[in-house]
Amino acid sequence: MYTKNAEPNICLINCNIKAHRDINMLVSPQGFNTMHISDKEFGQKNFAVTPVAFLIDVVAKTKMVASAMLDKVVDSIQKKFGFLVPVIAMVSESCGHKQVLFDRGALDYVSYPLIPAELLHRLNCLKHLLTFRQDAGLNNLGNKKARLASEAVEILRARLSENITLAELSTTLSTNRNTLAEAFKTHMNTSIFNWLREQRMLKGAQLLAETSLSVVQVAERVGYTDGNNFSTAFKKQFNMSPLNYRKARQCSATALYGKNNINRLSL
Questions:
Q1: Where's the HTH araC/xylS-type domain (predicted)?
Q2: Residues of 74-83 as b/e, b for ≥16 C-beta within 10 angstroms?
Q3: Biggest distance spanned by C-alpha atoms of the chain
Q4: Could you tell me the CA-to-CA distances from 100 to 44, 95, 107, 135, 251 in Å, in that order?
Q5: Total domains in the fold of the chain
Q6: Which among 62, 107, 190, 205 is least surrounded, fewest beta carbons within 10 Å?
């Protein structure tokens, strides 16, 4: 059973040696530890601690193979724990079947080669989600605040490109600003607009890596009306400009897969 005092775990499924090493190097300083098993071993594995998340490597898998792997893992998680521990799919940047992964039970995905800020942000959010999901029975007030934070996240994720205000969000959720801000801070461990800024930067990074949109177009997709403001915020988050980030990601993908294999991985 996962508790606030237990050391959080990330269970890696079918990860190659390099991916395992890269992930471990990123998450260990943040207080996470990793374990690795294959999807075939998963059914026989006994867990003393409920993992924060399962991260399954489907980087070089076809849509059919990735779907079958996720079906098997998600079904086993439900049987083992009685509820669905979050599953993250690790995919290539050029993966063309991400929606299928969501349909098969993946809560989210991370791109490989890894974006450190993306991976750590996903895991920290999931750690808090799991803690409060298991603490939800403590009192009705806690349940209400947890639901309020969860509903706010869903709305904000769906409206990243919009300039939504705290007052508007509060009205949509039939609450007041102070209650919403407090609930979000408690359950997400950050303020609403810090979380929103991070999500916009992560989405911007994804669009830069996976599309040919201009920086201005990317900025508009993530809620910035001024491309310069987006570039300034992006450089603060990733320590490089959007264009340099795009070049670096393209180079790393080519080095990892080879120019001729990048398109094949999205089939």
A1: 150-248
A2: bebbeeeeee
A3: 56
A4: 27, 11, 11, 31, 27
A5: 3
A6: 62
> Is the pLDDT higher at 47 or at 58?
58
Domain that includes residue 115, residue range:
9-131
Q: 213, 205, 218: which is closest to 244 by C-alpha?
A: 205
**Whether residue 150 is found in the same domain as residue 102:** no
* Intra-chain end-to-end CA distance of the chain, in Å: 39
Distance CA 55, CA 108 (A): 10
Q: Taking Cα atoms as reference points, which of 148, 86, 158 lies closest to residue 122?
A: 86
Judge contact between 109 and 101, C-beta under 8 A: yes
Q: Which of 156, 142, 146, 154 is nearest to 193 (CA)?
A: 156
My answer on whether 126 and 148 are in the same domain is: no
**Percentage helix, strand, coil for the chain under 3-state DSSP, each rounded to 5:** 60, 10, 30
Residue 214 corresponds to which amino acid?
S
Pairwise CA distance, residues 87 & 196, whole Å = 22
Q: Point out which residues pair with 13 in neighbouring strands.
A: 37, 56
